[in-house]
Amino acid sequence: MKSLSVSKSIVFLLIFLSTVKSISQTMTNQTNFLKITNQFSVEDFEKVKKFILGKGNRKTYRNFDNNNPYYDFGKFETYLGADIGQQNIYNDPKLSDFNELTIKDDNHYFKILIVRKGDINSSKKGIQNGMKENEIYFIDIYQKECDNISGLLLDYLKSLKEIN
What we know:
alpha+beta, signal
């Protein structure tokens, strides 16, 4: 009787583990990024980064790092994140470059990532399998399958492209 109970427990455990493995494989096969270089170029990213560093302030907006370069555009705020992550926890431009641009309003949070030449071999923060160098990506932080870009984000990117 005890042997039957142990067998049932083992069978249940095996079924449970195979289900977990199947779900995790499905999740890792989905991409959560979309190339948007045609809508927001490498040059646009670098121009916005330079603008934020030159005319912006500093503000912490997440627990991952501190003192992020920041600029408030009125309808939305922008933050830069260091390309070496927490190794530059205070986002010092003398320690590393910035490869992440976060655009945030009261209801939305958009993450934009630049992959520069050499970034993939250098294992810069945020780079995922399938990304290519000299490209800009929208990262879907909500982990939904990403197949198009929202109109609101396009409006925000257009505003960013118009800065001087």
